[in-house]
Amino acid sequence: MALLITDECINCDVCEPECPNGAITQGDEIYVIEPSLCTECVGHYETSQCVEVCPVDCIIKDPGNEETEDELRAKYERITGEG
What sequence ranges are listed for the domain 4Fe-4S ferredoxin-type (predicted)? Predict the structure, then answer.
């Protein structure tokens, strides 16, 4: 499942550069994650890098975009052209 940044985001700018898929961008008020690009770092890292660096723990699993590990891996392969 893709990740979601909640309104607790403090715009600290640390998550955006950590995303290997470029899924995180500055929104109108807080950072946002594009679900079609978010693989929860599957294929890149063992853990979601944005979650690891977030100082306020405002990045959660997006209940509106549930995906299995296999679906996340397939998305990773589609995005990167690997596989």
Answer: 1-29
